[in-house]
User: Which sequence fits this backbone?
DNA sequence: GACATGCCTTGGCAAATGCCAGAACCGCGA
DNA sequence: TCGCGGTTCTGGCATTTGCCAAGGCATGTC
């Protein structure tokens, strides 16, 4: 794409951003195509470029968000299955991902849905507590860039030693980066060696301050984990098999945002909880919007327990899971 | 769209895809298509319907605004020509329609642009004063339905006797209807027979009240008319040729929102002004956002005068007109 | 001043989409 | 049970779009 003629000589000086005209062309092509309904041929002719270039311009316009294609989120919420699950699950809102989509991993697909919903829900001065998980990570990657300097994104659970690509720190900072929001990481280990250490840590001013901030949360975002079979908790090195067994023996079926619970939604505690640095549940439960995102048949029991525990009041899941849940919830 | 519970009896013959998408089919098709990037074929397969039906669903989804395609209005404002004209014309904002669009009439194309911009600019408690004209009418028809019960749309100029399809009443009520806003028409003739009558009318409580409302305007929307050759003023029966000549002889080159002006932006008055029921110019000029919409080579001189008179601080026009104006404004 | 490098553009083909007219279907009434 | 009006769905074709690999053009380097 050529710069306008007038700029030819001064161009080597590069006073203004070089691609000024380019942005306009994409914009104009987009207008003519999407608003006036011209064919790419016609636009090509009128702009004096090839049709292929028009195609490229349109693609660029979409990529650069000169044009955006959005799906009305209120409709998503009104979909039949969403409404049914919302009512049966005692939720404030519920969103269900259509079955049989692309071949991508389910958590990526759910993450995409979650991203679109979160974008719509975010308000200018939100404080968002973020947990961790593959789906949350996926959501963070699917978020569109936005400018929300008033938003704070805070980590609800301590950081981990092991580095894996969906750690609490990464989830939090990723989301904050996309939103251009303030990122507040929790600079403490997620798990410490004994309860005494936890007590001491919690008294540290910086940590204490962080937990004060968490009490301001207007939203939290978290995934769910099931406990049977290979789980992230173990794979990520957060917990050992023995610890997990201990919870399972106590009747726990799932883990979400730092808490274990049984099928009836009772919180299950073991000694691990005394070493786990996480937002206290009594604070957590006071957050107005608690958004849980996750799905897959292996998680159904866990999600059911999570719903009974009322950890979430907004659920984002997939169709198959939603179906099963509806069936199970009487 | 069929009701979801069609499963009663006929459905038992359809074992393969036992999914019931009910009224959400369009929504889900839209999600899979626009968000997950599936082909129509694939969606058809997964939903167990023909590809053509998927196409129809997608079309419906667009029509019903389940999906919307929008062009970032801030980009429109940042386009080169817009910026140039904004600065040269002493405007707050300026929007330029790309040249060489569809074969539709220019005023329809500009109206479309105006509609998109107005949609973006409207705030929840706006009071919008609306004048009349073909372009304004066209804008009103291109507005997307919205729900703005807090908005008031008020007529800035009196109504006319002759009925034509872009009368002040129609422009006003059309816009209000689209926005689901309150519509306040001015129940008085646009032109009365003598100045005495105008004085009396203006004292009428209802009329007086209306003009009080107009003083609350946060926005006004109006077109421009040129005076040479056949004009709307004459065609619509608002004015006679003699009256127009009178203004032209006094140096007027254009008419906008009820006022005549000369090329230097001086307001031109004749006896007609004493019979013309319209918002007083000193009130008009205080409205924070005065949006003028119009274009076409025949209007260039008129728009130039209008700009000098600073009647508008937001201008929506087409590329050709914008080019000429830039050239003329030094 | 010639050559290498890398982004843009283009022509053309294969795939995807848009659209229409006829088929299938539904509910209703006889 | 059959026929009928109105609606929705589908097969198939013409058009439009998406994409790729080859060719340009301009800049940077020696």
Assistant:
């Amino acid at each position: 794409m050529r710069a306008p003629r007038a700029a030819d000589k001064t161009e080597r000086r590069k006073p203004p951003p070089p691609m000024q005209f380019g942005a306009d062309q994409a914009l104009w092509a987009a207008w003519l195509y999407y608003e006036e309904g011209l064919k790419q041929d016609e636009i090509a002719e009128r702009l004096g470029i090839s049709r292929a270039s028009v195609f490229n311009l349109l693609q660029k316009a979409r990529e650069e968000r000169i044009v955006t294609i959005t799906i009305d989120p209120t409709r998503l919420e009104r979909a039949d299955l969403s409404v049914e699950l919302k009512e049966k699950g005692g939720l404030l809102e519920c969103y269900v991902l259509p079955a049989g989509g692309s071949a991508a991993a389910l958590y990526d697909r759910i993450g995409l849905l979650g991203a679109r919903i979160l974008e719509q829900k975010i308000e200018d001065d939100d404080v968002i507590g973020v947990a961790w998980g593959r789906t949350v990570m996926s959501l963070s990657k699917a978020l569109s860039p936005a400018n929300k300097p008033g938003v704070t994104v805070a980590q609800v659970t301590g950081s981990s030693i092991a580095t894996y690509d969906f750690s609490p720190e990464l989830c939090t900072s990723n989301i904050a980066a996309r939103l251009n929001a303030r990122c507040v990481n929790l600079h403490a280990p997620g798990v410490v060696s004994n309860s005494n250490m936890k007590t001491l840590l919690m008294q540290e001013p910086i940590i204490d301050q962080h937990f004060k901030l968490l009490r301001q949360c207007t939203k939290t975002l978290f995934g769910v984990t099931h406990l049977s079979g290979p789980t992230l908790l173990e794979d990520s090195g957060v917990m050992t098999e023995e610890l997990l067994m201990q919870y399972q023996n106590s009747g726990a079926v799932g883990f979400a945002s730092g808490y274990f619970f049984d099928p009836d939604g009772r919180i299950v505690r073991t000694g691990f909880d005394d070493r786990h640095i996480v937002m206290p549940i009594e604070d957590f439960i006071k957050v107005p919007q608690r958004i849980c995102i996750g799905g897959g048949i292996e998680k159904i029991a866990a999600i059911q327990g999570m719903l009974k525990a009322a950890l979430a009041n907004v659920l984002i899941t997939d169709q198959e899971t939603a179906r099963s849940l509806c069936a199970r919830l009487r």
